[in-house]
From TrEMBL:
Residues 256-477 form the Endonuclease/exonuclease/phosphatase domain. InterPro entries: CCR4/nocturin_mRNA_transcr, Endo/exonu/phosph_ase_sf, Endo/exonuclease/phosphatase. Pfam families: Exo_endo_phos. This is Carbon catabolite repressor protein 4 homolog 1 isoform X2.
Amino acid sequence: MLSVLRVHLPSDIPIVGCELSPYVLLRRPDKTVTTDDVPESAPLDGHFLRYKWYRIQSDRKVAVCSVHPSEQATLQCLGCVKAKIPVAKSYHCSPKCFSDAWQHHRVLHDRAASAVNENGNEEEEIFGRFNSTGSGVISASLTGSASSTSLTNGSTPLYPTAVTQRSGGETWFEVGCSKTYTPTTDDIGHVLKFECVVIDAETKLPVGQPNTLLTSRVIPAPSPSPRRLISVGGADMMGQLDSDGRLSSSGTFTVLSYNILSDSYASSELYSYCPSWALSWPYRRQNLLREIVGYRADIVCLQEVQCDHFDEFFAPELDKHGYQALYKRKTNEVYSGNIHTIDGCATFFRRDRFSHVKKYEVEFNKAAQSLTEVAVQTTQKKVALNRLVKDNVALIVVLEAKFTNQGADNPGKRQLLCVANTHVNVQQELKDVKIWQVHTLLKGLEKIAASADIPMLVCGDFNSVPGSVEFCPVLPIHFLLWERLIHCIRIYWSIHLQFCVLTAS
Protein backbone atom coordinates (compact mmCIF):
# COMPACT_ATOMS: atom_id res chain seq x y z
CA MET A 1 0.00 0.00 0.00
CA LEU A 2 1.05 3.60 -0.59
CA SER A 3 2.67 5.13 2.50
CA VAL A 4 4.45 8.36 3.47
CA LEU A 5 7.96 7.84 4.85
CA ARG A 6 9.08 11.41 5.47
CA VAL A 7 8.08 15.05 5.02
CA HIS A 8 10.31 18.10 5.54
CA LEU A 9 10.91 21.65 4.32
CA PRO A 10 14.22 23.03 2.98
CA SER A 11 13.85 25.92 5.43
CA ASP A 12 11.83 25.97 8.65
CA ILE A 13 11.29 29.74 8.48
CA PRO A 14 8.59 30.70 5.93
CA ILE A 15 8.72 34.11 4.23
CA VAL A 16 5.88 36.17 2.78
CA GLY A 17 5.71 35.70 -0.99
CA CYS A 18 8.10 32.71 -1.08
CA GLU A 19 6.51 29.42 -2.07
CA LEU A 20 6.79 26.54 0.40
CA SER A 21 7.33 23.24 -1.37
CA PRO A 22 7.65 20.31 1.07
CA TYR A 23 9.78 17.28 0.30
CA VAL A 24 7.54 14.20 0.56
CA LEU A 25 9.16 10.76 0.41
CA LEU A 26 6.77 7.91 -0.53
CA ARG A 27 6.90 4.13 -0.58
CA ARG A 28 4.94 2.63 -3.46
CA PRO A 29 3.01 -0.65 -3.21
CA ASP A 30 5.93 -2.39 -5.00
CA LYS A 31 8.25 -1.21 -2.16
CA THR A 32 10.11 1.29 -4.35
CA VAL A 33 10.76 4.77 -2.94
CA THR A 34 9.87 7.96 -4.82
CA THR A 35 9.20 11.67 -4.40
CA ASP A 36 6.64 11.81 -7.24
CA ASP A 37 3.22 13.18 -6.36
CA VAL A 38 0.14 10.91 -6.36
CA PRO A 39 -2.86 13.20 -6.95
CA GLU A 40 -6.52 12.28 -6.74
CA SER A 41 -6.78 12.41 -10.53
CA ALA A 42 -4.17 9.63 -10.86
CA PRO A 43 -4.46 7.30 -7.85
CA LEU A 44 -1.94 4.53 -7.29
CA ASP A 45 -3.29 1.11 -6.27
CA GLY A 46 -6.55 2.77 -5.20
CA HIS A 47 -4.90 5.46 -3.06
CA PHE A 48 -3.83 9.09 -3.47
CA LEU A 49 -2.32 11.88 -1.34
CA ARG A 50 -4.24 14.75 0.20
CA TYR A 51 -2.48 17.89 1.41
CA LYS A 52 -3.63 20.67 3.71
CA TRP A 53 -2.06 23.81 5.16
CA TYR A 54 -3.18 25.49 8.36
CA ARG A 55 -2.35 28.77 10.02
CA ILE A 56 -2.11 28.48 13.78
CA GLN A 57 -3.20 31.86 15.05
CA SER A 58 -2.93 32.60 18.76
CA ASP A 59 -5.01 35.20 20.57
CA ARG A 60 -1.81 37.18 21.16
CA LYS A 61 -0.33 38.60 17.99
CA VAL A 62 3.44 38.80 17.59
CA ALA A 63 5.34 41.47 15.68
CA VAL A 64 8.71 40.64 14.14
CA CYS A 65 11.85 42.72 13.73
CA SER A 66 12.24 44.41 10.34
CA VAL A 67 16.03 43.91 10.42
CA HIS A 68 16.20 40.45 12.01
CA PRO A 69 12.89 38.91 10.90
CA SER A 70 13.46 35.72 12.88
CA GLU A 71 13.44 37.78 16.10
CA GLN A 72 10.39 39.12 17.95
CA ALA A 73 10.10 42.91 17.98
CA THR A 74 10.33 44.82 21.26
CA LEU A 75 10.08 48.42 20.06
CA GLN A 76 8.57 50.46 17.25
CA CYS A 77 9.73 53.63 15.49
CA LEU A 78 7.16 56.38 16.08
CA GLY A 79 8.50 58.31 13.10
CA CYS A 80 7.43 55.50 10.79
CA VAL A 81 3.94 55.47 12.28
CA LYS A 82 3.52 59.24 11.82
CA ALA A 83 4.94 59.12 8.30
CA LYS A 84 2.60 56.24 7.38
CA ILE A 85 5.52 54.03 6.38
CA PRO A 86 4.51 50.35 6.10
CA VAL A 87 4.27 49.33 9.74
CA ALA A 88 6.27 46.12 9.29
CA LYS A 89 9.35 48.26 8.66
CA SER A 90 8.98 50.14 11.96
CA TYR A 91 9.64 47.19 14.27
CA HIS A 92 13.01 46.37 15.86
CA CYS A 93 14.12 43.65 18.24
CA SER A 94 16.34 45.83 20.45
CA PRO A 95 17.59 49.42 20.89
CA LYS A 96 20.96 48.34 19.47
CA CYS A 97 19.23 46.90 16.40
CA PHE A 98 17.43 50.20 15.85
CA SER A 99 20.64 52.21 16.37
CA ASP A 100 22.71 50.04 14.01
CA ALA A 101 20.05 50.23 11.30
CA TRP A 102 19.43 53.97 11.62
CA GLN A 103 21.53 55.11 8.64
CA HIS A 104 19.49 52.90 6.34
CA HIS A 105 16.25 53.34 8.24
CA ARG A 106 16.32 57.14 8.06
CA VAL A 107 16.12 56.86 4.25
CA LEU A 108 12.53 55.64 4.71
CA HIS A 109 11.74 58.81 6.65
CA ASP A 110 13.38 61.03 4.01
CA ARG A 111 11.40 59.39 1.24
CA ALA A 112 8.16 59.70 3.15
CA ALA A 113 8.87 63.35 3.94
CA SER A 114 9.38 64.17 0.27
CA ALA A 115 6.31 62.13 -0.70
CA VAL A 116 8.43 59.87 -2.90
CA ASN A 117 7.55 56.21 -2.72
CA GLU A 118 9.02 54.45 -5.71
CA ASN A 119 7.52 51.04 -4.96
CA GLY A 120 4.04 52.06 -3.85
CA ASN A 121 1.58 49.23 -3.27
CA GLU A 122 3.95 46.80 -4.91
CA GLU A 123 6.37 47.27 -2.03
CA GLU A 124 3.68 46.37 0.48
CA GLU A 125 2.82 43.29 -1.54
CA ILE A 126 6.43 42.13 -1.66
CA PHE A 127 7.58 42.96 1.85
CA GLY A 128 4.28 42.63 3.65
CA ARG A 129 2.57 44.68 6.31
CA PHE A 130 2.13 43.51 9.86
CA ASN A 131 -0.87 45.73 10.49
CA SER A 132 -2.37 48.90 9.07
CA THR A 133 -2.08 50.84 12.31
CA GLY A 134 0.30 51.17 15.22
CA SER A 135 0.99 53.53 18.03
CA GLY A 136 3.41 54.26 20.82
CA VAL A 137 6.69 52.72 21.77
CA ILE A 138 6.01 49.02 21.97
CA SER A 139 7.25 46.97 24.90
CA ALA A 140 8.57 43.42 24.92
CA SER A 141 5.01 42.07 24.88
CA LEU A 142 3.78 43.57 21.64
CA THR A 143 0.09 43.06 21.05
CA GLY A 144 -2.36 44.12 18.42
CA SER A 145 -5.71 43.37 16.95
CA ALA A 146 -6.19 40.19 15.01
CA SER A 147 -5.63 40.36 11.30
CA SER A 148 -8.35 39.87 8.78
CA THR A 149 -9.67 36.33 8.55
CA SER A 150 -10.09 36.52 4.81
CA LEU A 151 -7.90 33.67 3.63
CA THR A 152 -6.02 34.36 0.43
CA ASN A 153 -2.99 32.99 -1.40
CA GLY A 154 -1.82 35.86 -3.56
CA SER A 155 -4.37 38.45 -4.60
CA THR A 156 -7.25 36.06 -5.34
CA PRO A 157 -9.26 34.43 -2.50
CA LEU A 158 -8.73 30.69 -2.70
CA TYR A 159 -10.44 29.27 0.35
CA PRO A 160 -13.43 30.23 2.49
CA THR A 161 -12.83 31.09 6.12
CA ALA A 162 -12.54 27.71 7.85
CA VAL A 163 -11.92 27.33 11.55
CA THR A 164 -10.63 23.80 12.03
CA GLN A 165 -10.06 23.85 15.75
CA ARG A 166 -10.02 26.16 18.78
CA SER A 167 -7.87 25.00 21.69
CA GLY A 168 -5.84 26.63 24.41
CA GLY A 169 -6.15 30.13 23.01
CA GLU A 170 -5.21 28.99 19.47
CA THR A 171 -7.29 28.91 16.31
CA TRP A 172 -6.39 26.80 13.28
CA PHE A 173 -7.40 28.22 9.92
CA GLU A 174 -7.24 26.10 6.78
CA VAL A 175 -5.34 28.19 4.26
CA GLY A 176 -4.40 25.73 1.51
CA CYS A 177 -5.23 22.34 0.03
CA SER A 178 -2.35 21.75 -2.40
CA LYS A 179 1.17 20.49 -1.88
CA THR A 180 2.70 23.96 -2.08
CA TYR A 181 1.70 27.11 -0.27
CA THR A 182 2.80 30.73 -0.53
CA PRO A 183 2.57 32.64 2.79
CA THR A 184 0.64 35.90 2.70
CA THR A 185 0.75 39.00 4.87
CA ASP A 186 -2.07 37.51 6.98
CA ASP A 187 0.36 34.76 8.04
CA ILE A 188 3.06 37.05 9.45
CA GLY A 189 3.90 36.14 13.03
CA HIS A 190 2.01 32.84 12.93
CA VAL A 191 3.08 29.20 12.71
CA LEU A 192 2.01 27.13 9.69
CA LYS A 193 1.16 23.45 9.77
CA PHE A 194 1.52 21.10 6.79
CA GLU A 195 -0.48 17.87 6.70
CA CYS A 196 -0.08 14.97 4.27
CA VAL A 197 -2.25 11.85 4.46
CA VAL A 198 -2.97 8.82 2.28
CA ILE A 199 -6.62 8.68 1.13
CA ASP A 200 -8.62 5.67 -0.07
CA ALA A 201 -9.80 6.61 -3.57
CA GLU A 202 -13.12 4.73 -3.14
CA THR A 203 -14.22 5.79 0.33
CA LYS A 204 -12.38 9.14 0.37
CA LEU A 205 -11.35 8.37 3.95
CA PRO A 206 -7.83 8.70 5.42
CA VAL A 207 -5.72 5.56 5.69
CA GLY A 208 -3.49 5.65 8.74
CA GLN A 209 -2.26 8.71 10.62
CA PRO A 210 -1.46 11.95 8.78
CA ASN A 211 2.15 13.10 8.53
CA THR A 212 2.54 16.68 9.74
CA LEU A 213 5.19 19.32 10.29
CA LEU A 214 5.18 22.75 11.90
CA THR A 215 7.10 25.76 10.63
CA SER A 216 8.55 28.63 12.59
CA ARG A 217 6.64 31.91 12.61
CA VAL A 218 6.12 33.46 9.19
CA ILE A 219 8.34 36.50 8.64
CA PRO A 220 8.00 39.40 6.17
CA ALA A 221 10.58 39.56 3.41
CA PRO A 222 13.31 42.00 4.53
CA SER A 223 13.81 45.18 2.54
CA PRO A 224 16.70 44.78 0.08
CA SER A 225 19.89 46.61 1.00
CA PRO A 226 20.52 49.63 -1.23
CA ARG A 227 23.08 49.10 -3.98
CA ARG A 228 26.22 51.22 -3.81
CA LEU A 229 26.25 52.24 -7.45
CA ILE A 230 29.43 53.82 -8.80
CA SER A 231 28.97 56.58 -11.35
CA VAL A 232 31.49 56.35 -14.20
CA GLY A 233 32.53 59.65 -15.73
CA GLY A 234 31.33 60.11 -19.29
CA ALA A 235 29.04 57.08 -19.06
CA ASP A 236 26.22 58.44 -16.93
CA MET A 237 23.10 58.03 -19.07
CA MET A 238 20.52 59.04 -16.47
CA GLY A 239 19.79 62.26 -18.28
CA GLN A 240 18.68 60.28 -21.33
CA LEU A 241 16.16 57.98 -19.65
CA ASP A 242 12.56 58.14 -20.79
CA SER A 243 9.47 57.91 -18.58
CA ASP A 244 9.74 54.09 -18.44
CA GLY A 245 13.36 54.18 -17.31
CA ARG A 246 14.62 53.13 -20.75
CA LEU A 247 17.40 54.83 -22.69
CA SER A 248 15.81 57.24 -25.13
CA SER A 249 18.81 57.56 -27.44
CA SER A 250 18.31 55.20 -30.38
CA GLY A 251 22.02 54.44 -30.75
CA THR A 252 22.58 53.24 -27.20
CA PHE A 253 21.65 50.20 -25.16
CA THR A 254 22.15 48.91 -21.62
CA VAL A 255 23.76 45.66 -20.44
CA LEU A 256 23.56 43.77 -17.14
CA SER A 257 25.97 40.98 -16.13
CA TYR A 258 25.21 39.05 -12.92
CA ASN A 259 26.45 35.86 -11.24
CA ILE A 260 23.27 34.78 -9.42
CA LEU A 261 24.87 31.91 -7.38
CA SER A 262 23.48 28.52 -8.32
CA ASP A 263 21.28 26.94 -5.67
CA SER A 264 23.52 23.85 -5.72
CA TYR A 265 26.38 26.01 -4.38
CA ALA A 266 24.31 27.99 -1.84
CA SER A 267 25.03 25.71 1.10
CA SER A 268 25.22 26.54 4.79
CA GLU A 269 28.76 25.12 4.81
CA LEU A 270 29.97 27.71 2.29
CA TYR A 271 27.80 30.55 3.60
CA SER A 272 27.63 29.87 7.33
CA TYR A 273 26.99 33.57 8.04
CA CYS A 274 23.62 33.42 6.21
CA PRO A 275 20.43 32.09 7.84
CA SER A 276 18.88 29.10 6.08
CA TRP A 277 15.83 31.06 4.93
CA ALA A 278 18.07 33.62 3.19
CA LEU A 279 19.82 30.84 1.25
CA SER A 280 16.63 29.08 0.19
CA TRP A 281 15.97 29.22 -3.53
CA PRO A 282 12.30 30.33 -3.31
CA TYR A 283 13.44 33.41 -1.36
CA ARG A 284 16.46 34.22 -3.53
CA ARG A 285 14.72 33.75 -6.87
CA GLN A 286 12.08 36.32 -5.90
CA ASN A 287 14.76 38.89 -5.07
CA LEU A 288 16.85 38.08 -8.15
CA LEU A 289 13.91 38.47 -10.50
CA ARG A 290 12.87 41.77 -8.93
CA GLU A 291 16.37 43.19 -9.26
CA ILE A 292 17.06 41.90 -12.78
CA VAL A 293 13.76 43.22 -14.11
CA GLY A 294 14.20 46.48 -12.21
CA TYR A 295 17.30 47.47 -14.19
CA ARG A 296 15.37 47.22 -17.49
CA ALA A 297 18.56 46.28 -19.33
CA ASP A 298 18.39 45.59 -23.06
CA ILE A 299 20.84 42.67 -22.72
CA VAL A 300 21.16 40.49 -19.60
CA CYS A 301 24.03 38.02 -19.10
CA LEU A 302 23.65 35.67 -16.14
CA GLN A 303 26.14 33.13 -14.80
CA GLU A 304 25.59 30.11 -12.52
CA VAL A 305 22.06 29.61 -13.82
CA GLN A 306 20.92 26.12 -12.86
CA CYS A 307 19.53 24.13 -15.78
CA ASP A 308 16.11 23.46 -14.27
CA HIS A 309 15.83 27.02 -12.95
CA PHE A 310 16.42 28.36 -16.47
CA ASP A 311 13.66 26.17 -17.95
CA GLU A 312 11.14 26.51 -15.14
CA PHE A 313 11.74 30.04 -13.87
CA PHE A 314 14.05 32.51 -15.62
CA ALA A 315 13.09 31.82 -19.24
CA PRO A 316 9.29 31.98 -18.69
CA GLU A 317 9.44 34.87 -16.18
CA LEU A 318 11.70 37.08 -18.29
CA ASP A 319 9.64 36.19 -21.36
CA LYS A 320 6.76 38.01 -19.65
CA HIS A 321 8.96 41.11 -19.61
CA GLY A 322 9.80 40.90 -23.31
CA TYR A 323 13.09 38.96 -23.23
CA GLN A 324 14.21 36.14 -25.49
CA ALA A 325 16.46 33.56 -23.79
CA LEU A 326 19.49 31.50 -24.81
CA TYR A 327 21.40 29.06 -22.62
CA LYS A 328 24.58 27.01 -22.49
CA ARG A 329 25.11 24.62 -19.62
CA LYS A 330 28.44 23.38 -18.32
CA THR A 331 29.82 20.13 -19.67
CA ASN A 332 29.60 18.17 -16.42
CA GLU A 333 27.09 17.96 -13.62
CA VAL A 334 27.65 18.63 -9.94
CA TYR A 335 28.30 15.53 -7.84
CA SER A 336 24.66 15.16 -6.76
CA GLY A 337 24.11 12.85 -9.73
CA ASN A 338 21.09 14.85 -10.89
CA ILE A 339 21.43 16.40 -14.34
CA HIS A 340 19.32 19.35 -13.20
CA THR A 341 22.07 20.53 -10.88
CA ILE A 342 24.22 21.56 -13.84
CA ASP A 343 24.60 25.31 -14.06
CA GLY A 344 25.61 27.44 -17.01
CA CYS A 345 25.42 30.81 -18.75
CA ALA A 346 22.17 32.42 -19.86
CA THR A 347 21.84 35.42 -22.15
CA PHE A 348 18.60 37.39 -22.52
CA PHE A 349 17.80 40.27 -24.86
CA ARG A 350 14.76 42.42 -25.45
CA ARG A 351 12.83 41.32 -28.49
CA ASP A 352 11.83 44.90 -29.25
CA ARG A 353 15.49 46.00 -29.35
CA PHE A 354 17.32 43.04 -30.90
CA SER A 355 16.73 39.95 -32.99
CA HIS A 356 18.69 36.70 -32.80
CA VAL A 357 21.04 36.00 -35.73
CA LYS A 358 23.39 33.23 -34.62
CA LYS A 359 24.58 31.31 -31.55
CA TYR A 360 27.99 29.79 -30.81
CA GLU A 361 28.83 27.51 -27.88
CA VAL A 362 32.36 27.29 -26.48
CA GLU A 363 33.34 24.27 -24.40
CA PHE A 364 36.78 24.81 -22.90
CA ASN A 365 37.16 21.05 -22.33
CA LYS A 366 37.14 20.46 -26.09
CA ALA A 367 39.56 23.33 -26.61
CA ALA A 368 41.86 21.78 -23.99
CA GLN A 369 41.84 18.46 -25.81
CA SER A 370 42.66 20.15 -29.11
CA LEU A 371 45.48 22.16 -27.51
CA THR A 372 47.13 19.20 -25.85
CA GLU A 373 47.00 17.21 -29.07
CA VAL A 374 49.20 19.71 -30.91
CA ALA A 375 51.15 21.58 -28.21
CA VAL A 376 51.94 19.06 -25.46
CA GLN A 377 54.24 16.08 -25.48
CA THR A 378 52.54 12.69 -25.25
CA THR A 379 53.98 11.94 -21.81
CA GLN A 380 52.52 15.16 -20.39
CA LYS A 381 49.06 15.12 -21.99
CA LYS A 382 47.32 13.50 -19.04
CA VAL A 383 48.77 16.03 -16.59
CA ALA A 384 47.91 18.92 -18.88
CA LEU A 385 44.31 17.76 -19.36
CA ASN A 386 43.82 17.28 -15.63
CA ARG A 387 44.80 20.91 -15.15
CA LEU A 388 42.84 22.41 -18.06
CA VAL A 389 39.61 20.36 -18.05
CA LYS A 390 37.33 22.28 -15.66
CA ASP A 391 33.94 22.11 -17.44
CA ASN A 392 33.64 25.88 -17.94
CA VAL A 393 31.81 27.18 -21.01
CA ALA A 394 31.00 30.36 -22.89
CA LEU A 395 27.90 31.39 -24.81
CA ILE A 396 28.35 33.67 -27.84
CA VAL A 397 25.31 35.29 -29.43
CA VAL A 398 25.16 37.45 -32.55
CA LEU A 399 22.31 39.96 -32.43
CA GLU A 400 20.93 42.45 -34.89
CA ALA A 401 19.87 45.81 -33.51
CA LYS A 402 16.37 47.01 -34.35
CA PHE A 403 17.44 50.60 -33.73
CA THR A 404 19.77 52.82 -35.75
CA ASN A 405 23.24 53.90 -34.73
CA GLN A 406 23.26 57.68 -34.73
CA GLY A 407 26.11 59.16 -36.71
CA ALA A 408 26.88 55.97 -38.61
CA ASP A 409 28.41 56.41 -42.06
CA ASN A 410 26.07 53.85 -43.59
CA PRO A 411 22.63 54.05 -41.95
CA GLY A 412 21.29 51.27 -44.19
CA LYS A 413 23.84 48.72 -43.02
CA ARG A 414 22.75 45.91 -40.67
CA GLN A 415 23.81 46.79 -37.14
CA LEU A 416 25.18 43.55 -35.68
CA LEU A 417 26.55 42.94 -32.20
CA CYS A 418 28.36 39.89 -30.83
CA VAL A 419 27.74 39.24 -27.10
CA ALA A 420 29.93 36.75 -25.22
CA ASN A 421 28.91 35.44 -21.81
CA THR A 422 31.25 33.21 -19.78
CA HIS A 423 32.16 32.00 -16.29
CA VAL A 424 35.90 31.45 -15.86
CA ASN A 425 37.25 28.79 -13.50
CA VAL A 426 37.01 29.77 -9.84
CA GLN A 427 40.14 28.14 -8.37
CA GLN A 428 42.58 30.91 -7.46
CA GLU A 429 45.63 28.65 -7.73
CA LEU A 430 44.87 28.05 -11.42
CA LYS A 431 45.73 31.55 -12.66
CA ASP A 432 47.25 30.15 -15.85
CA VAL A 433 44.03 28.25 -16.61
CA LYS A 434 42.02 31.46 -16.23
CA ILE A 435 44.33 33.20 -18.72
CA TRP A 436 44.02 30.30 -21.14
CA GLN A 437 40.21 30.21 -20.95
CA VAL A 438 39.92 33.96 -21.60
CA HIS A 439 42.50 33.71 -24.36
CA THR A 440 40.57 30.85 -25.99
CA LEU A 441 37.34 32.85 -25.88
CA LEU A 442 38.89 36.01 -27.30
CA LYS A 443 40.64 34.05 -30.02
CA GLY A 444 37.25 32.75 -31.16
CA LEU A 445 35.72 36.22 -30.97
CA GLU A 446 38.56 37.60 -33.07
CA LYS A 447 37.60 35.22 -35.88
CA ILE A 448 33.95 36.29 -35.69
CA ALA A 449 34.85 39.99 -35.67
CA ALA A 450 37.24 39.61 -38.60
CA SER A 451 34.75 37.65 -40.70
CA ALA A 452 31.94 40.20 -40.53
CA ASP A 453 33.41 43.31 -38.90
CA ILE A 454 31.14 42.86 -35.88
CA PRO A 455 31.75 44.80 -32.65
CA MET A 456 32.10 42.69 -29.52
CA LEU A 457 30.75 42.80 -25.98
CA VAL A 458 32.39 40.43 -23.46
CA CYS A 459 30.51 39.78 -20.19
CA GLY A 460 31.00 37.23 -17.46
CA ASP A 461 32.39 36.27 -14.10
CA PHE A 462 36.16 36.10 -14.59
CA ASN A 463 36.91 35.14 -10.97
CA SER A 464 39.86 37.53 -10.96
CA VAL A 465 41.01 40.57 -9.04
CA PRO A 466 43.66 43.16 -9.95
CA GLY A 467 47.05 41.47 -9.82
CA SER A 468 45.67 37.94 -9.90
CA VAL A 469 46.88 37.19 -13.45
CA GLU A 470 50.45 35.95 -12.99
CA PHE A 471 52.83 33.82 -15.00
CA CYS A 472 53.11 30.38 -13.38
CA PRO A 473 55.42 28.09 -15.45
CA VAL A 474 54.17 24.72 -14.22
CA LEU A 475 53.63 23.00 -17.56
CA PRO A 476 55.28 23.51 -20.98
CA ILE A 477 51.96 24.78 -22.37
CA HIS A 478 52.26 27.86 -20.19
CA PHE A 479 55.15 29.16 -22.26
CA LEU A 480 52.92 28.99 -25.31
CA LEU A 481 50.19 30.85 -23.41
CA TRP A 482 52.64 33.51 -22.28
CA GLU A 483 53.75 34.13 -25.87
CA ARG A 484 50.12 34.68 -26.85
CA LEU A 485 49.13 36.80 -23.84
CA ILE A 486 50.18 40.16 -25.34
CA HIS A 487 48.30 39.25 -28.51
CA CYS A 488 45.27 38.42 -26.36
CA ILE A 489 45.39 41.85 -24.69
CA ARG A 490 45.58 43.58 -28.06
CA ILE A 491 42.48 41.68 -29.20
CA TYR A 492 40.63 42.81 -26.07
CA TRP A 493 41.37 46.48 -26.62
CA SER A 494 40.41 46.19 -30.26
CA ILE A 495 37.07 44.69 -29.24
CA HIS A 496 36.59 47.34 -26.56
CA LEU A 497 37.14 50.18 -29.03
CA GLN A 498 34.73 48.67 -31.54
CA PHE A 499 32.07 48.41 -28.84
CA CYS A 500 32.59 52.07 -27.87
CA VAL A 501 31.97 53.09 -31.48
CA LEU A 502 28.68 51.18 -31.51
CA THR A 503 27.39 52.77 -28.31
CA ALA A 504 28.48 56.32 -29.09
CA SER A 505 25.48 58.63 -29.19
